[in-house]
Amino acid sequence: MTTPFAIWRCLLNALIGICVLAYLASASAVQITDDRGNVITLARAPLRIVSLLPSLTETVCALGQCARLVGVDRYSNYPASVTKLPIVGGGLDPNIEGIVALKPDLVLAATSSRSADRLRSLGMTVVALEPKTHADVRRVIHTLGQLLEVADADKVWRDIDAALNAASKSLRPNAVGLRVYFEVSQAPHAAGETSFIGETLVRLGARNIVPASMGPFPKLNPEFIVRADPDVIMVGDGTFIGMESRPGWPAMRAIKAHRVCVFSAEQGDKLVRPGPRMAEGARAMAQCLASNAP
User: Fold this and answer.
1) What is the pTM of this model?
2) What are the counts of helices (DSSP H) followed by strands (DSSP E) for the chain?
3) What is the pLDDT of residue 115?
4) What is the pLDDT of residue 91?
5) Which domains does the chain have, with CATH numbers?
């Protein structure tokens, strides 16, 4: 005959079992808020990731989780191992069918990606992250560390920050205070004070000719650049072509004194991607300033 005590003990054991299962489920679940304000909850850390932004690809790898990537956008080229992965188009023109075929449990995309809603409608879990400032880079590293359950992911940022400080301290006083124009495209679009590139220039002691009031990457009137007459120009090798013959430019001090730093495509990737290799970009900028100091 079952006694009331036996029934009570059975119910108690059952309740304890339910609580344990609930705790284990919650302990393994991962929840973050992405840059679009979406709250994403995953039952467990993702094992199959498609990345549609090079800076996010590089961050996943910097966190030691390259093996989880199963597909990348056409511009992701670092580290070399990711070039062997299936390419699923670009951030603005992704191959939706190709992404679905890879069966990812997470898709990383920029906030500007127009494919996020389409992917979600197909059952994909999409996290939108797009770093634009140094603070954003730190936050994105932390967020991806949470998603991937990486212990002390913030060490990646601390290493970047320390290397940025080292690049700044490497400069002699005569290289500080130079007025810089950093061109990111031939439109011309420039890196303003509020961009992550502009923030790096500030840390190096340079003065950006493009003020914060104009936004992070404004399209400029070419006459504005001529009037600003920068001490040093920084530009990618593809964008440099024809620069010296632009109207009014031959009279600019940077052009006349040949104080133009032309970065290779490889250097350009480090400079224009807000991610783990920012410090390498900072070192390239520091070398440019040092070599063009009066």
Assistant:
1) 0.88
2) 12, 11
3) 87
4) 82
5) 29-151 (3.40.50.1980), 172-291 (3.40.50.1980)
For 139-151, b/e burial (b = at least 16 CB within 10 A) is ebbbbbbebbebe
- pLDDT in the model for residue 264: 96
- Judged by DSSP in three states, 89 sits in strand
Instruction: Check whether the bond before 250 is cis (ω within 30° of 0).
Output: no
| Residues of the chain with confidence (pLDDT) below 70 | 1-28
Q: What is the pLDDT of residue 54?
A: 97
Contacts with 147 (C-beta within 8 Å, 6 or more apart), sequence order: 30, 32, 42, 45, 46, 106, 127
**Which of 259, 179, 254 is CA-nearest to residue 211?**
179
Query: Cα separations (Å) of 73 from 49, 60, 91, 147?
Result: 12, 14, 7, 20
Q: Which residues contact 20 (CB under 8 A, 6 or more apart)?
A: none
